[in-house]
Amino acid sequence: MIQLHDLQFEPYLSEKEINEAIDKLAEQLNRDYEGDTPVFLGVLNGAFMFASEIIKRFKGDCEVSFVKLGSYEGTRSTGDVKTLLGLNQSLKGRRVVLIEDIVDTGNTLEEINEILKKEGVADYKVLTLFFKPEAYKKSIKIDYKGMEIPNKFIVGYGLDYDGLGRNLTEVYKRKEQ
Ligand SMILES: O=P(O)(O)OC[C@H]1O[C@H](OP(=O)(O)OP(=O)(O)O)[C@H](O)[C@@H]1O
Ligand code: HPA
């Protein structure tokens, strides 16, 4: 059990389980993007750890870029997704792989979708380590999912509770009261 701020969290996914999911995603990406030079676009802050691991496993040429969006306060989405750092390169005509640590309500994804539509990308795919099907309210297709998880608040592997927990290499879920 760990404590972050006022909440307790219990172990949920081991580093081994997470790495196995990332290995599988990497195999798919290496197959689907063979011979292409995709742009991996990570969504900060949460995706930093996953982005690093998946990009290390990509065998071809690629570019790496980041945007920074935020909408969570504590354990809840405010529904108001703020772009804190936007794109700093043109993605026109490029194949883009959006890297998310988690797709939960889908609010963040919808916001990025609008940004990428305006960019005139050749195509883009959504890659996420974690996906909460019960919470997802949008229709944007999630192309690559590492793991489907129940609608519980998690921390670790880049994900935080009010700033803490991002450095944990395993994932913890909020303890039921
Ligand atoms: O599908 P949603 O409900 O929009 O949730 C997913 C988003 O929430 C988290 O970001 P957050 O806004 O907490 O910012 P952070 O990445 O800096 O922690 C996470 O990193 C995703 O980007
Ligand atoms: O379960 C979660 N944990 C941490 N951050 C998040 N952002 C969306 N869902 C989550």
Automatic annotation (TrEMBL):
Belongs to the purine/pyrimidine phosphoribosyltransferase family. It catalyses: GMP + diphosphate = guanine + 5-phospho-alpha-D-ribose 1-diphosphate; IMP + diphosphate = hypoxanthine + 5-phospho-alpha-D-ribose 1-diphosphate. Its EC number is 2.4.2.8. It is found in: Cytoplasm. Keywords: Cytoplasm, Glycosyltransferase, Magnesium, Metal-binding, Nucleotide-binding, Purine salvage, Transferase. Its main location: cytoplasm. Its cofactor is Mg(2+). GO terms for molecular function: glycosyltransferase activity. Residues 16-161 form the Phosphoribosyltransferase domain. The keyword Cytoplasm applies. Pfam families: Pribosyltran (PF00156). Gene3D superfamilies: 3.40.50.2020. The gene is hpt. This is Hypoxanthine phosphoribosyltransferase. Coiled coil: none annotated.
